[in-house]
Amino acid sequence: MKQVLTVTRRELGGYFATPVAYVFIVIFLLLSGILTFQLGGFFEARQADLRGFFFWHPWLYLFLIPALSMRLWAEERRSGTIELLMTLPVTMPQVIIGKFLAAWIFTGVALLLTFPTWLTVNILGNPDNGTILASYIGSLFMAGGFLAIGSFTSALTKNQVIAFVIGIVMCFTFLLFGIPKTTEIIRGWLPTGVVTAIASLSFQTHF
Asked: Taking a C-beta distance cutoff of 8 angstroms, is the pair 36, 121 a contact?
């Protein structure tokens, strides 16, 4: 466990040592605000809930999470530091878990910084805060799913741009599985059990 925490601290320090962390957080907060209050019609709905806020999270993560995770392994391979990393007294599973936890914690910090939206809806009305809290937890777990795919694509290549593009394509595929229109299309030429199994792979279905 100590080795995992060491890798996690190393990766978190790497995020905040560059402008990447701050750019990611600012973009995430700006886009979530714009999508919620402008495109989501928050005030027009005249309803004290954050359904519109969480509705956009899968689509925010679709682009932002691959951008965050593309450097996890690709940068190590490009710079040659992966050889140094492998000489340290840590196992491969410990490195994988440590890198994943660092990216997940960082995403959790960005998600936590959206708390003014939660405060806003409580000032304007009397929302079900239990549902909102559960939605935050669900969103964090969904981000973990996106990160798992992003980590995988980052390990496939030393080019971060390629890792980013492949990550988006794979995450988008998993999102499509949960869209009713997609389910209707494939229901015509696949057995119901197979369609249900495919739909259950989607982030949307579980979220």
From this structure: no
